[in-house]
Design goal:
Layout lengths: L1 H9 L13 H11 L4 E3 L13 E3 L13
Parallel strand pairs: 1-2
């Protein structure tokens, strides 16, 4: 987790911890307030809702493919 946080910061992003147990409205507010452009998740958490931004599941092998899946 620490390596992921450092990678996000090194890439010029911001780390906003979001607990998957938060209510949908709270998560949506946090994403809107932080002006998030991308959501990184692990093990498919938070994917069941469309937040209006791209979601990347880091536990999926497709996230590490050389070319994006079509």
């Amino acid at each position: 987790m620490v390596i992921g946080m450092l990678a996000v910061l090194q890439a010029g992003g911001a780390y906003v911890p979001i607990d998957p147990d938060y209510p949908e409205d709270r998560v949506r507010y946090m994403l809107n307030d932080s002006d998030a452009k991308l959501l990184l998740v692990q093990k498919g958490e938070l994917i069941s809702v469309d937040y209006g931004i791209p979601i990347v599941d880091l536990s999926s092998e497709e996230a590490y493919a050389a070319e994006p899946a079509r």
